[in-house]
Amino acid sequence: xxxxxxxxxxxxxxxxxxxxxxxxxxxxxxxxxxxxxxxxxxxxxxxxxxxxxxxxxxxxxxxxxxxxxxxxxxxxxxxxxxxxxxxxxxxxxxxxxxxxxxxxxxxxxxxxxxxxxxxxxxxxxxxxxxxxxxxxxxxxxxxxxxxxxxxxxxxxxxxxxxxxxxxxxxxxxxxxxxxxxxxxxxxxxxxxxxxxxxxxxxxxxxxxxxxxxxxxxxxxxxxxxxxxxxxxxxxxxxxxxxxxxxxxxxxxxxxxxxxxxxxxxxxxxxxxxxxxxxxxxxxxxxxxxxxxxxxxxxxxxxxxxxxxxxxxxxxxxxxxxxxxxxxxxxxxxxxxxxxxxxxxxxxxxxxxxxxxxxxxxxxxxxxxxxxxxxxxxxxxxxxxxxxxxxxxxxxxxxxxxxxxxxxxxxxxxxxxxxxxxxxxxxxxxxxxxxxxxxxxxxxxxxxxxx
Length: 450
Description:
With 450 residues, the chain is α/β, with parallel strands linked by helices. The protein folds into three domains: 16-263, 3-Layer(aba) Sandwich (Rossmann fold); 267-389, no CATH class; 393-449, no CATH class. It contains 15 helices and 15 strands. It has a four-stranded parallel β-sheet with strand order 4-3-9-10, sandwiched between helices. Strands 5-6-7-8 form a four-stranded antiparallel β-sheet.
């Protein structure tokens, strides 16, 4: 039997499967990217970080030159139109600025850039071509300036999500419109008024539906059938379900994506994240508090990607403490190469088993306890960690230094009052900011950038 090293949870099959790429010299992965109307929140970041790790694992296994990672930018969407109108700026100005902010935030989390990052607005001809194929095949119809996918034409519809028709209607919050043959039929093309972005088409001036964008772009760059399609669990239905339906119907005989990989939901302190609850956390919010991007990355990976992740201050503190330990060990002298090979084999075994990052972290701690700096750095680098070799030399901004000094004074006061819990809390806050505090005799304190 042929040996399979990498295993992934395939949502399409509802089980963990051995990963066999269609072509080991051309491993292909598509991941749904951001809709660029606002800053990336921590839930968005989880998906990007998770699939960045998968990208790194695939590159390690098959070679960087043999892996192609495509992640799109959705720059035409009703949320974008509304946000631009609310801010009184041009849509293109909003999408350009928000895309730049997304890139900056993800770079701060040590995420690699995808090999291709297509923008939806640059691929309208591909979408129109695909819609034309669906109409010709009897899978779509034009009505009242819209083009809709005929769900009843696809006997496999619902296979990914495993939902009944009633569940799908409720889950999609479908629009009941008189021009629809079936409430489940979804929009491929819709008309635009003069104030909205629009392109000429055989069905009148309009713009694409969300689902057709990802199908057209993924097929252009990866082919009619490719290896992995990834995204958050919230995209399983209706977005990914609709992608499969329209893609396989437009190209009969294709499979679209063989492996569907979804990361779990993220909550904040046990509650669903929302602006109305006041617990909406963006990556920029955390960075502005002095929390290092590498700490955020560690905290996002500490829980297995398939499981729900609860974002808490403790998760951040634990991540900072672990990273500080790793960086301190990274200065040690390493054992022999044989020990390095054994450590790497154990580490890869964990990662190849459905990206078990929580187990991989426990192995990193074992390696750190052994003092094997070379193995620690080599393994951690595959997770996108311990890449900041000059962390201790990074200068503080005047604003951050003022924050540090204020916390140091608060900690001195807490220790003077023998409030040890408060003292420890502030020490942990400083550690999250990348500051190590050492207590000296007589109540004195020394601090340094780790």
